[in-house]
Fold Protein kinase domain-containing protein.
Amino acid sequence: MARLLGVSFLVAGLGCALLVAPSESAADDVSALLAFKKAIFEDPLAKLSDWNSKDENPCGWTGVGCSPFDSRVVTLILDHNTLMGPIPKGIGKLRNLIMLNLSTNQLDGPIPIEIGDMPKISKLDLRANRLDGAIPPEIGNLTSLTELQLSNNSLTGTIPGSNDSSMVSTNRDGQIGLCRLTQLTDMDLSYNYLAGDVPTCFTQIRRLSLVGNCFENNDTTNRPDNQCENSQKGNESSRVDGNQQKSFQQPLWLLILEVITAISLLTVLTLCTIAGLRRCKARSSRNSGTWTRAISWKENTVISIDDDLLANVPKISRQELAEACEDFSNIIGSTHDTVVYKGTMKDGSEIAVVSLSASVVEMARLSHENVAKMVGYSKESDPFSRMLVFQYPPNGTLYEHLHDGEGYQLSWPRRMKIALNIARALRYLHTEMQPPFAVAALTSSSVYLTEDFSPKIIDFERWRALLTKPGLSSGSIVNGSFNNIIDSRHRRFMDIQANTFAFGVILLELISGRAPVSKDTGDLVDWARKHLDQTEEFIKLVDPKLMNANHENLGIVCNVVNLCIDAEPCRRPSMNMITAILEEGIDTSPATVLRDSSLAWAEAEIAIS
């Protein structure tokens, strides 16, 4: 009897352990996910808004997938969300993760070595971000990995497992680094700055892409030599500095002497700087300040120029703007770095005024009928150190017409005309501007409509996005935009590809009437992809309010959408090609517009009745 009782207690104890263990593991998952959310400092689509620290069950959070058996997190899919920030070390706590997809965002910094602590992961997709540093050898620990996507980043160094690699840990077969990934069938490391040799074990990988790197013995196409040389110099200098620190240790007395000397020099330098700033401040009251801008978009060179850049833009006093904007009381948008006011000038023209905390002039060179024109600027003392004045289209945003109103004024031909004009504006920004200009946050909310429903892109978001990135010095414009990366052309390429994807989303909004993200209908792109594979499914994408959708136009637009939302940025066509396809297939002649007006009112009458 006692023996039976002991066995019963043992079974009960094991049962309790089994019940407690999953909850502790689930708590680790929640901790790891919240660490990821904390590291993300920009989430423009609010994808992480439902990640609640008070919620002990993350299985309902956006992008999170759980096992039905133990509620462990097994998938984390957050691609195409414009997330900004580093990948935190805590990501390695997701020990049961099978798939991690953070592609096509704006994640930066190195890949954490803790990513090698997820032994069950089979797909790791970090492509099309801004990740830098070396590929961590710890990825070689992910022996279940079948797909590795790291393309279109700024990764440097050698591949772990190559002859040049310092990786020494091996498996039972003596394989090192990424050569330990014997299950790997699909790997893309293209368009980085990887150097050295390509591991011979890579010949066993069925789908392999290495183009656009700096390899020494490689049959694939490398980057231009000058790009590789700049990258290698940076790596060598950091490596030499690290070796010197390890091999040379100074005596304590010498270190103290150096510290005292450095403090003395710093004190003198600070006093000189303060004196110089006072002189400059006195002089700046008489002379206009200089701004910096790249002399050529083809070179990473910065030179100083003066206010001649704004020679053709009228200068408006703060008093005039205060009167136009009702003493800056008519606020139509704001962030912690920018405030947007609406105003009316004395001639009756409506304007939008952006108050900024740093000198920016990039908008001054934009001139296109479908891009809001900068009509003036004010440069005076605090609290408004600099203001930019834009045309204000009075008919609201495209988002408001499609999603906040009934949308009856936007019939099919009118929507097609809006789509074509947005495409033309992007073609101008991407191909006719030198350097190319990418809209920071292209959405239907950044497209304003005039009284005749002509679209105008206003890039208010650009200033906030550019001025809030950590580590950027105000007043420095390199290759046409604020940045501190080695290869600004690569960054610009990625921003332009993001614009192309965003245009595809706007096209989906126009034909479906659905918002990009909705609690009721979910993610628009995910929903649309179910119907974009087959032509006969296209009709299911059409807004039910539309009664005159042109099926031929619908096919053309859906094919363009498919091109724009391709998961691989390099495969997305240029806006030059996209605009040509739309111009060839969509009729926006005056006769069509006239017919559009009568159809729009007819549809409105039918819908209301």
In short: Residues 2-39 form the longest helix (38 residues). The chain has a mean pLDDT of 73. The chain has two domains: 18-238, 395-608. The longest strand covers residues 350-356.
